[in-house]
Amino acid sequence: MSAGQAAEQAVAEAFRAEWGRIVATLIRTTGDWDLAEEAAQDAFAQALARWPRDGVPARPGAWITTAARNRAIDVLRRRSVEAAKLREVALDPVHAPHDGSDAPDEDSGFGDDRLRLIFTCCHPELALPVRVALTLRTLTGLTTAEIARACLVSEPAMAKRLVRGKEKIRQAGIPYRVPPAHLLPERLSGVLAVLYLLFNEGYAATSGADLLRPDLCAEAIRLAGLLARLMPDQPEARGLHALMLLHHARRDSRVSGTGELFTLAEQDRSAWRREEIDEGVAALESALDHGEVGPYQVQAMIAAYHATAPSAQQTDWAAIAHLYLRLAELVPSPVVRLNRAVAVGMAEGPEAGLALIDELAADGALAGYHLLPAVRADLLRRLRRGGEAAEDYRRALDLAPTEAERGFLERRLAEVTAAEQT
Asked: How big is the CA angle at 27 (ends 233 and 80), to the nearest 5 degrees?
């Protein structure tokens, strides 16, 4: 590997690991969201320019953090009216290497800047779509286009949403902190939604060459664990933490070294991380002990059935289908209906699943969503209706957002096409 390639790889790894922490810290110290993002972007650009020549530093994250802090100071120096902020940034020790610890916060006992950022973005004065968009942008460094795809809106609409959200925070003087305990519940739904979307972007990316972004999953799990400890009497916080752990435990078996996607039935269950499954099951049981079952707990129950089944054939699909019906009552979403159709197709046979899929397709709620024709194609394949299955695989291929998913669909299409020709 050349020096340039090594530097590019190091910058990419530092971006995944450090972006959210750097931006969150600079927002706290400068109070300026746009400046924080600009300074962070400039620091990563400096790294790309200098590291191929000077070599990758021993602590890449600390180097970039210092560069971002210095950039913020330079900008603030040109704003004489912000002298107080300049002093605060200059004295703030953000250049110290992050050790994963959390300094105490006088209101909550949690001083993690990323958690402060989430609660700031999830203030009840902001609409839920704005909360989600702002947090994904500032915490993960996802582009506006990526967030738009994740939220199923156009890129221009998402750009306007982000601008309005930042302006609302400035105008309303929304404080950058984890709120006192008595104010936490009113923000819980927004925070949980943000963490859920953050995890999902890592679990199944909305675009790009890589289906998985384990760094985003790990960060979402860490923050969800913090939240569960911050709000021990909120079972949905524990339920979300359990759900993430149970899904993330399968990461080593979902995609091959060459980027080939494996379904649940194809995955090597010996590669699943049993300690994380045990932790997830324990978190779920703790949540269910409260007796108030919400949608994240139901999803964690479904994930637990999958994670603890000895084999694909021994999975209790009837129980999973029942849980999806229960989830649909709590969250009347077409995606939940799609997942229930899959479970019914496994529990009662592909004809039963296909009937539900065709009902879903008829109402148009998932038009343009690649998994709808992909699921229909799979049910048709199992019914040995290869010609119809091939048509739906082609439709799914036209819509699939990632290379891993396209590769999987191409493999399935080749299989049904070959079967039709024999």
From this structure: 150
Cα 331 from chain centre: 19
Instruction: State the pLDDT at residue 75.
Output: 87
Average pLDDT, the chain: 85
Q: Is 314 helix (H, G, I), strand (E, B) or coil?
A: coil
Calpha distance 317→320 (Å, rounded): 5
Which pLDDT tens digit goes with each residue over 107-123? 444 456 777 777 888 88
Phi, psi of 323 (to 5 degrees): -65, -35
Q: Please, what's the largest Cα pairwise distance for the chain?
A: 78
Of 362, 102, 337, 335, the closest CA to residue 230 belongs to 102
Domains of the chain: 3-91 (1.10.1740)
Q: What percent of the chain has pLDDT over 90?
A: 44
Query: Rounded mean pLDDT of 47-71?
Result: 91
DSSP-assigned states of every residue in 122-149? T-TTS-HHHHHHHHHHHHH---HHHHHH
CA 390 – CA 262 distance, rounded (Å): 19
Integer Cα distance of 221 and 290 in angstroms = 21
